[in-house]
Amino acid sequence: MELNSEVRFGDENLKKAYHELEAGKFEDKQLKEWLDRAVQDLKKNAFSGIQIPKRLIPKEYHARYGPLTNAWKYNLPNAWRLIYTIKRDEVVVLSVVLEWMSHKEYERRFGY
């Protein structure tokens, strides 16, 4: 039995920022390509990232998106990170993109 998998954005501002990368500088367009590849991978397998320990999930994620039971990171090229959560809606697995950031921002946010 195949499990449907969808990828959504945590909010409209994030979705808008994702689409605006297309019209940006070379680096923005490159980041969009990496994010597109990540989205395709998550559609195939929502668990293709690395699970972040629950104790390390930033409080601001809970404040912005409601209580999260899990958070995952997907490593992008040039040390960028895509952060997402997995939710289940009956037989559909949802990967909800929370944000993307450089490795430096990631270390700061997660206290490494």
Strand order within the widest sheet? 1-5-4-3-2
* Count of alpha and pi helical runs: 4
Q: Please trace the helix and strand order, writing H or E for each element.
A: EHHEHEEEH
Q: Label the CATH architecture.
A: 2-Layer Sandwich
Biggest sheet record? 5 strands, mixed
How many separate domains? 1
In terms of structural class, how would the helical and strand content be classed? alpha+beta
Query: Within the CATH hierarchy, at the fold level, what is the topology?
Result: YaeB-like fold
* Distance N to C terminus: 39 Å
Average pLDDT rating: 89
CATH superfamily: RelE-like
Poorly predicted spans: none
Strand content: 25-35%
Oligomerization: single chain
Radius of gyration: 14 Å
Q: What is the highest CATH level, the class?
A: Alpha Beta
Structure described in brief:
With 112 residues, this protein is α+β, with helices and mostly antiparallel strands. The chain has helices at residues 12-20, 26-44, 59-65, 103-110; strands at 4-9, 50-52, 71-75, 81-89, 92-101.
Write a structural description:
This protein is α+β, with helices and mostly antiparallel strands and 112 residues long. It has one domain (4-110): YaeB-like fold (2-Layer Sandwich), CATH 3.30.2310.20. The protein is built from four helices and five strands; from the N terminus they run E-H-H-E-H-E-E-E-H. A five-stranded mixed sheet has the order 1-5-4-3-2. The radius of gyration is 14 Å and the shape is globular.
